[in-house]
């Protein structure tokens, strides 16, 4: 398959005609195997392996790429196009250690796929009981991801259009951090009531894409900060 045709400003009919249909079929097959091992009365560990095969329409019909000239000025737009298959694999391990009162929960996941995306996720939680029956749980998460082999923040005018290309920020190279705190307490009916506040930061990387002209003066890979409650 090839990149969908370009559309031009103000021409909605051509815009619609060049769009790939979003109602194409997609099939997902997932398999996961794992085991849990009690190491001793304080420590339990878990290991999982998962395999996922997705076949069908994987392109986002609403995402476009800018076609820019040597001065970095947008001349046109192209709809993105992605491969129609994706194989994802991952390994996951988690360990919980019960101290006299507190509990440490640490997990790590490594994911890789045939789009050349590799990711590492390290997640740590620490359960701290309080004297009144409530508890605190600090949370720290680190995530790092490489870009898909067809990720392109933009396309250059005059160069051959690649078979696959996407500017979707979710498949670009990035590093992300989450730092948070959870407060919870037991209600009289036995249920939990909890409140959470977290700070999230995402730092994207250029992945070797050199910006031309005016684009070199712009912040194309701006960091994202968010508060999660």
Count of all domains: 1
Spatially, the strands of the biggest sheet line up as: 1-2-5-6-7-8-10-11-12
Structural classification: mainly beta
The CATH class name reads: Mainly Beta
Question: How do the SSEs run, as a string of H and E?
Answer: HEEEEEEEEEEEE
Strand fraction equals over 45%
Can you offer a commentary on this structure?
The strands form 2 sheets. The chain has a 9-stranded antiparallel sheet with strand order 1-2-5-6-7-8-10-11-12, with no helix packed on it. Strands 4-3-9 form a 3-stranded mixed sheet, with no helix packed on it. 10% of the residues are buried. By secondary structure, the protein is mostly beta strands. Mean pLDDT is 88; it is low at 1-22. The radius of gyration is 23 Å and the shape is elongated. Helices cover 3% and strands 52% of the residues. It has a single domain (12-228), classed as Porin. It contains 1 helix and 12 strands, in the order H-E-E-E-E-E-E-E-E-E-E-E-E.
Brief overview:
This protein has one helix at 12-18; strands at residues 26-38, 43-56, 64-68, 74-79, 85-98, 103-113, 118-129, 135-145, 155-156, 174-186, 192-204, 224-228.
């Amino acid at each position: 398959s090839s990149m969908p045709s370009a559309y031009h400003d103000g021409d909605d009919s051509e815009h619609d005609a060049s769009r790939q249909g979003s109602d194409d079929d997609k099939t997902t097959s997932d398999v996961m195997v794992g085991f849990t091992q009690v190491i001793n009365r304080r420590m339990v560990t878990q290991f999982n392996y998962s395999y996922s095969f997705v076949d069908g329409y994987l392109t986002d019909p609403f995402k476009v790429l800018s076609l820019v000239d040597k001065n970095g000025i947008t001349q046109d737009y192209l709809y993105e196009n992605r491969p129609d298959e994706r194989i994802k694999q991952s390994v996951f391990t988690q360990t919980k250690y019960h101290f006299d009162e507190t509990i440490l929960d640490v997990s790590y996941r490594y994911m890789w796929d045939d789009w050349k995306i590799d990711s590492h996720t390290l997640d740590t939680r620490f359960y701290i009981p309080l004297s009144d029956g409530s508890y605190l749980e600090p949370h720290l998460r680190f995530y790092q991801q490489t870009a898909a082999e067809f990720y392109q923040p933009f396309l250059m005018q005059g160069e051959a259009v690649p078979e696959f290309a996407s500017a979707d920020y979710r498949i670009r190279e990035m590093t992300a951090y989450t730092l948070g705190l959870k407060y919870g307490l037991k209600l009289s009916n036995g249920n939990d009531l909890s409140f959470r506040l977290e700070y999230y930061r995402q730092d994207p990387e250029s992945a070797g894409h050199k910006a031309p002209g005016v684009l070199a003066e712009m912040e194309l890979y701006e960091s994202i900060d968010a508060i999660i409650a």
